[in-house]
Amino acid sequence: METSKLTRQIQKSKIRVMYDLARKKENVLNFTVGETDFMTPKEIVEVSNRYFSEGYTKYTPNAGVRELTEAIAQKYESVTGRNIQADSQVIVTVGATEALLVAMQTVMDPGDEILICGPYFPSYINQIFICHCKPVIVPTAEEDGWMPKAEEIEKRMTPRTKMLLLNSPCNPTGAVIDETTLREIAALCVRHQIVVISDEVYKDIRYNEEPYFSIASVEGMEELTVIVNSFSKTYAMPGWRVGYAVGPEWILSQMPKTHDVTAACVCAPFQYAGAYALRHCDARVEEMVAKFKARRDLVYQGINSIDGLSAVQPQGAFYLFFNIKKLGMTSEEFAYELLDKEGVVLVPGTGFGEEGEGYIRFTYAADEESLKRGLERIQRFVRGNC
């Protein structure tokens, strides 16, 4: 007996492979998973605890409690400039991961094609396989700041293309897609009637003063865009598993059907805590982003000061995707040897698709002292291999 073809097709994320290896070693500096060293703000925890103590432990509506869906609708009305109906255009999910999968399952048929920009977050490919669809990779390049190009997207469209998945700010590159590029991509999607999933989980972790621009705000995209977000990164709540999707009624009103048979609903006290976070914790987010920016600068400058390594400065998220090509090593050789010799755990770029070969992802969500020690060990490793 053996497992299904689908199960055999799904590959374990290299992020998790490296994370699991790190747990087996001592004196390791682990910069793999996208998990910050910040604790969930105390006031958010207190709200959750209060709802637990008051007995809010029953099932909730599939789409989420009204307090949270309304808070999400209001948040994205300010982002998109559109009216959003909390009862038919919002769903609360078990993290952004479930929102992505349920959105795909709601729109896609077996054999349909989904365009994704590479390098990409590894869960995307496996979710596309679960939907029995075909991933089509649109490469981006370091010399272009990892920015997707509309003409490259259009080249890869076929009659089976039904969806485009965008991630901005991007994991693993930290690229933020600019308004001009998004408008060009939107024009393509409107012309060809392509649905866009806009993965915006790092939307509030950006390092410039410009307001965030969502493709959903472009004329003609209101019926073609599903926005996905979560509380994991912005509010330091990764283990709470609270995510959500916002989009047109023809998609969002149908997503609860699939959500019902996979997760049913999200823990009620966690939902109420999420509503509180959206309405009252902006200052906390600003504090975290300021610290992330300082860490970004530290790691970016540190990597670029090491002979043989280079990187584009990330504009968002908390990852540095640095270039190792001058060293003459593959991404996996670099990552495994660095772990073995120096006890530093990073993720090989091939964990984010073929376009990641020659690169390494460094998560700078750790404290500054750990980041400095990590940079010292990386420098020692590179000097010993040059």
At a glance:
With 386 residues, the protein is of the alpha/beta class. The chain folds into 2 domains: 5-40 and 283-381, Aspartate Aminotransferase, domain 1 (Alpha-Beta Complex); 57-281, Aspartate Aminotransferase, domain 2.
Please characterize this protein's 3D structure.
The chain is an alpha/beta fold. The chain folds into 2 domains: 5-40 and 283-381, Alpha-Beta Complex (Aspartate Aminotransferase, domain 1); 57-281, 3-Layer(aba) Sandwich (Aspartate Aminotransferase, domain 2), CATH 3.40.640. Helices cover 42% and strands 15% of the residues. The protein contains 14 helices and 13 strands. The longest helix is centred in the C-terminal third of the chain and has 23 residues, at 282-304. The model has no long low-confidence stretch (mean pLDDT 96).
CATH hierarchy: architecture of the largest domain: 3-Layer(aba) Sandwich
Name the structural class: alpha/beta
- If you average the pLDDT, what whole number results? 96
CATH topology name of the largest domain, in short, is Aspartate Aminotransferase, domain 2
Q: Find the CATH superfamily of the largest domain.
A: Type I PLP-dependent aspartate aminotransferase-like (Major domain)
Task: Give the fraction of residues assigned to helices.
Answer: 40-55%
Largest sheet: 7 strands, mixed
Q: How does the overall form come out from the CA principal axes? A: globular
Kindly provide the radius of gyration, computed on alpha-carbon positions and rounded to a whole number of angstroms: 21 Å
Distance between the termini: 48 Å
Count structural domains: 2
Strand order across the biggest sheet?
A: 2-8-7-6-5-3-4
Question: Uncertain segments of ≥5 residues (pLDDT<50)?
Answer: none
Please tally the β strands and state the result. Answer: 13
CATH class of the largest domain: Alpha Beta
